[in-house]
């Protein structure tokens, strides 16, 4: 079967399903909206003979695990895990300003690239296996996350468990611009700094301890972590009450990113010690979240070479690159599994008003994913 021709013939259906998912707006924190979008996806998958498990959640969208084929087949070798997410960064109502539409070979809309197009790929790849009677090499499990954009310990635990039970992991996050896969991702540490000072009159600041001054000194220390490999962004800051009062409280939230686990260990050690140098103010550091880096490993490199060889048989040249953003692929890589990330389609404008998918890439990646499920 010529898979590129097969998927070109279903291009209209793919666009229609992408539109349906996009119109079901699904911002991370809106449980009702996220669950409604998940229901659209799950109802489609139910028609192609999958087994699925729902993980009910309070205050966030439910998680779902799809398994294909639904029945046990002893001929299949091991397990392959696909990572997807249904949530987006866009609030309900964004469609009023960012409507779904086609312009040439580009499909625009909130969340089309990150990553509702990935959901379309996964559904049509599984459907192709069933329609064309193409057995996958391994049992396929697909995890549908509802909190990827914000992060969630419960989701991370499921991903780790599912990754440990799998031989290979494919993450359908968008490709890098130009179509390259993501073979390396930065890890991330979000740290909150809370500084307690001593209030005093602004005319006699020496009688108090300015939490703002102390916070600025701490932030200057954190900036020393910056290097070619480590980035530091102070994304949120606040404190004080009035200009004539010495501030007795201040806070900041920093986003620190790094390429290796060795760097992560050094950063966490640095942050743990940073409050010990304060003499008059009290400084509390809280690690709000950490995401491991997706390092380039021997097992992932071997998987990339296998995938590139399969793609070459279809006339597609795969290349690999790296990105500063994290993904659920990083969580899976953290337990030592071979991971291919960025298998979603090419496009541009992630988290921006011009977010769009390149239609030829959507069709090409559906064919590639189907071939990977058959052979990887």
Architecture overview:
The chain is α/β, with parallel strands linked by helices and about 375 residues long. The protein folds into two domains: about 5-185 and about 295-375, 3-Layer(aba) Sandwich (Aminopeptidase); about 185-290, Alpha-Beta Plaits, CATH 3.30.70.360. Helices cover about 35% and strands about 25% of the residues. The chain is built from ten helices and 16 strands. It has a six-stranded mixed β-sheet with strand order 1-2-6-3-7-14, sandwiched between helices. Strands 4-5-16-15 form a four-stranded antiparallel β-sheet. Strands 10-11-9-12 form a four-stranded antiparallel β-sheet, covered by helices on one side. The two termini are about 15 Å apart. About 45% of the residues are buried.
**Quaternary form:** single chain
Please state how the strands of the largest beta sheet are arranged side by side: 1-2-6-3-7-14
- Which segments are poorly predicted (pLDDT under 50) over 5 or more consecutive residues? none
Order of helices and strands: HHHEEEEEHEHEEEHEEHEHEHEEEH
Label the structural class.
Answer: alpha/beta
Q: How many helices in DSSP terms?
A: 10
What would you give as the CATH superfamily of the largest domain?
Zn peptidases
Integer tally of domains: 2
- Please bin the fraction of helical residues: 25-40%
